[in-house]
Amino acid sequence: MLAYTYIEQGKFELQERPKPEIKDSRDAIVRVTLSSICSSDLHIKHGSVPRAVPGITVGHEMVGVVEEVGDAVTSVRCGDRVTVNVETFCGECFFCKRGYVNNCIDSNGGWALGCRIDGGQAEYVRVPYADQGLNRIPDTVSDEQALFVGDVLATGFWAARISNISEKDTVLIIGAGPTGICTLLCVMLKKPRRIIVCEKSIERIRFVREHYPQVLVTEPEKCKDFVLQNSDYGGADVVLEVAGSEDTFRLAWDCARPNAVVTVVALYDKPQLLPLPDMYGKNLTFKTGGVDGCDCAEILRLIEAGEIDTTPLITHRFPLHKIEEAYHIFENKLDGVIKIAIENR
Ligand SMILES: [Zn+2]
Ligand SMILES: [Zn+2]
Fold first, then answer.
1. What CATH number does the domain located at 155-288 have?
2. How far is the CA of 53 from the centre of ligand 2 (A)?
3. Angle ∠(30,125,110) on CA atoms, nearest 5
């Protein structure tokens, strides 16, 4: 089968690889119908994910059809259309039982697919702990509608869930990339009084204005003043930092009102400064990433009910054999790209 493979720092290559096989009774083999490219794939390519193993198939956002299941798998059957979770988790350890599945103590717990074990920018993928890692897609939900459930949408859902948002709140979301927009969609479900999105790219500002006209939009340089003008108590009640740029961590806590919740969803390239003297007396609560991806069934239910729609994020489509071209566009942010669907048909 074709599989997009991490060769070494700076180099991915489409290779012919053997089709994966069941290794454990809790595994499933999924025939990938659609996958996508995530900025975390680029982090691997650029060498900023030290745990990534050269030689693995990359890709951790995908949907497909169950092809084969191990004897111990009970929640899915051959022929089921499924979403695949970015995280591998056992469902039984201390952390899993409390919903902190990102911290599952299994040796492959957390983000393993497409990083430490073979992922889904391929024709087939082996999914460990299939009862946890796969969710059945309702018949009325298309593959494209479900494509982001296991990764970026799970992240947005989790970020909104842990941020204690109420209907009286002004919520600031920093960053309107794919994860930022997924976060926005999930924050909207909480019906806060105001949502402000801060983004620097003109194209992405235009995207937010076009699709979500009820949302206020500002740019990084004007953000703090804008938030002060559009909030009731000297800053946002909740801030979600999804950008991960040079100055956005500082911007996040600076735009928060006293006693606000600041949720850091972003993955940074460098350490960030936490200048406690500057924020003394502000009594902030910080929450940090990464995602506990255990809400996929609920997210699929919301998609089925028409309450979440991420299909506008898919701006480009490529067949797997042209994935190189897709990476070129995604990596260089060409042609207004937000997300690319890689099709296996
Ligand atoms: Zn990802
Ligand atoms: Zn676990």
1. 3.40.50.720
2. 22
3. 110
